[in-house]
Amino acid sequence: MIMKKDFLKWHHKKEFLHEEKTRPYFHEGETWFCSLGFNVGFEQDGKGEHFLRPVIIVKKFNQEIFLGIPLTKHIKKGKYYFPFKLNNQISAAILSQIRLIDGKRLNYKIGNLDKEDFKEIKKRLAQLFV
Q1: Mean pLDDT estimate for the chain
Q2: Residue 86 is part of which domain span?
Q3: Could you give the CA distance from residue 11 to residue 108 in angstroms, rounded to a whole number?
């Protein structure tokens, strides 16, 4: 059974983010809960009242935007996933879902990636594009 998405509810939240939300300070290698919203098809959605999903900040371009990778607790194998430990829990970065994200979507910081894991994620991303 497919869950019907309330895109109108997400639209109101997105309007608030665009008009009123201020951007927090963020850095590469951090993980944050981020308002990703309801998306199309197999794109990763956020959950709950604020449409949140954890993301890794992979590349900060400036104070406004960054490349982020959504995370999942459903551990899958393959070149499009990178499992790692964050705050004593196993998560997986969904490398194929990397996207440009505005910092206004950031809600709160979860933690920092281990330096070796962050290096490995960047290495695997580079391999996807060759």
Answers
A1: 84
A2: 7-128
A3: 20
